[in-house]
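Sequence, structure tokens reproduced for absentees:
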Amino acid sequence: MPRDLESEREIIENLPQLSREPDSGATPASASMSFRDIISGAPSAADKGYFFEPDENQSKRDELHPYVQTLNVTNVDSCVALEAAAFPPHEAATKEKFEYRFSVCGELSLGMFTATPTKDAPANLQKDATLHTASSTLIAHVVSTKTTNDVVSDEDMDLPKNWQTERHSMSKAGHKEEGRTIALHSLAVLPAYQKIGLGSTILKSYVQRMQNAEIADRIVLLAHDELVPFYEKHGFEKKGKSKATYGGGNWVDMVYEFPIDDSE
């Protein structure tokens, strides 16, 4: 259940391509770029030219030296801490869900990190060591699985029982590798870094990577009514009230359809 983590006034177009490593320069992608390369931060021709429009928050973003990379099981504790800080308890994903999602389809999730040295990190991050690695701090994430549904269902939000031992479970719950729909479960930004454009930045970067990877036809998510305008500005279409009851329900189905390439 993604959350809008910036103001209505935030400029959302022409957002930057973020690199796998901090301060790395963008270079044209090779024709043989793999799916893993695309989603883990390697720049592509489609990504070239993204830049921040000058605004009052640009200097705040620049100070962070943000970069993105795919998430895996080593990031579980950091994601749990971030989720707990950004969402109410009944909406935040559990540690087991992160373990499951990163184990079976970690390539569908993206983390934004700051390259700010730990000793210079803001005080609020210093208080939570679980958010730190040796050289970077997780400040935002997008976590997803794939589904065979056209919108997010409660089964998509769940995970199979005994998934650790039954990797090929016939359960209807959880990730469906054969699905052509990406179910975006969580868009979270650390509260101290909300309202400076990071929510838009990571969402824009994520959508571009998934489109470039050509492994799905759409991205779907659940949003509360007050957040619908944020996602609409990013190209998502409101599909009406969701049947999902996760976290107490009252969700709106949002869908982003990837453009169809008629050139072939």
Remarks:
- The longest helix spans residues 198-213.
- The chain has one domain: 62-257.
- The domain at 62-257 is CATH 3.40.630.30 (Aminopeptidase).
- Residues 46 and 212 are 8 Å apart (CA to CA).
